[in-house]
Specification:
4-hydroxy-tetrahydrodipicolinate synthase, schiff base, 12 helices, amino-acid biosynthesis, alpha/beta, about 300 residues, eight-stranded parallel beta barrel, cytoplasm, TIM Barrel, lysine biosynthesis
Length: about 300
């Protein structure tokens, strides 16, 4: 069996799953979104994922999602790829959001597995194909069974890779064996959505990452990839390990990454604002721990 060549990154390598800034009253803060997007790109992100899990897509309206794409595109121009989260539990609604994102200026679509209804694999495949057929934009499939209840099985992923507009995967399946099977048999660009796996997946032939923690540490995440690309693998491993305390506090301490990211951004005087219900703000002790870990990362060697 011939192993496919490593794919060209369709959306860049270093992508941030950007939070959606709100005003203190809870309205969409487009000015804040533009300022945050500009900072992320200046600090090393070559792609931004908007209205994903971290972007609170379940609680933003269709109109807000389109407005966010338009505003961020205006802010960053062609300096970064914009991938719009359009996934829902409803195929027809997802198609509508896909067309709206294309019209608003997105470069690609992040499409999560339909959730709650737990469709079988043939229905999962049909769902993604219908969305890929509906617009001219490339798709990044979002495999996160811990949230959706349904895996995109490796064999399903391999069949979906035959579609010319299904080009990438955001991998949150925590199954490196399954991921390697797909990498060996397709040219899909794999982006880890698990911040602690940035270096492991990249070393296995992944394309890069879609990171929540990069909202606050974009330069530090980019440095891991840059070190590996220059052949300094021990340094890449050291840089990945330096990120782990902050990753653990933000992603594995019992609160959603949206909550911890917005808490830290707010205390760093960066655009953020509150989370929308049912999410609730982080308690003061969590924020204090986040600030300590962040300062140690920034000030360390």
């Amino acid at each position: 069996m011939t192993t496919p060549a490593l794919p060209t990154p369709p959306f860049g390598r270093a992508l941030c799953a950007m939070v959606t800034p709100f005003t203190e009253e809870g309205a969409l803060d487009l000015d804040g979104a533009q300022r945050l997007a500009g900072r992320l790109v200046d600090e090393g992100c070559d792609g931004l994922v908007l209205s994903g899990t971290t972007g609170e897509s379940p609680t933003t309206t269709d109109a807000e999602k389109a407005a966010l794409v338009r505003a961020v595109r205006e802010a960053v121009g062609t300096r970064a790829s914009l991938v719009a989260g359009v996934g829902t539990a409803d195929t027809r609604h997802t198609v509508e959001l896909s067309l709206a994102a294309e019209k608003a200026g997105a470069d690609g679509l992040l499409v999560v597995t339909p959730y709650y209804s737990r469709p079988p694999q043939d229905a999962v495949q049909a769902h993604f194909r219908e969305i890929a057929d509906a617009s001219g934009l490339p798709l990044m499939l979002y495999d996160i069974p811990g949230r959706t209840g349904t895996r995109i099985e490796p064999e399903t992923m391999i069949r979906l890779a035959e579609h010319p507009r299904i080009t990438a995967v955001k991998d949150c399946a925590y199954d490196l064996l399954g991921t390697q099977k797909v990498l060996a048999r397709t040219e899909l660009a794999y982006y880890t959505g698990c911040d602690e796996q940035v270096l492991p997946l990249y070393a296995l032939g992944g394309t890069g990452y879609v990171s929540t923690v990069a909202n606050v540490a974009p330069r530090q995440f980019r440095a891991v990839l840059d070190a590996f690309d220059t052949g300094v693998t021990r340094e890449a491993a050291r840089l990945q390990r330096r990120l782990l305390p902050l990753i653990e506090l933000m992603m594995a301490a019992g609160l959603p990454g949206t909550v911890t990211a917005k808490s830290l951004l707010t205390h760093l005087d960066l655009p953020s604002g509150p989370v929308r219900p049912p999410l609730r703000p982080a308690p003061p002790q969590t924020t204090e721990a986040l600030l300590t870990a962040y300062k140690e990362l920034i000030d360390g060697p």
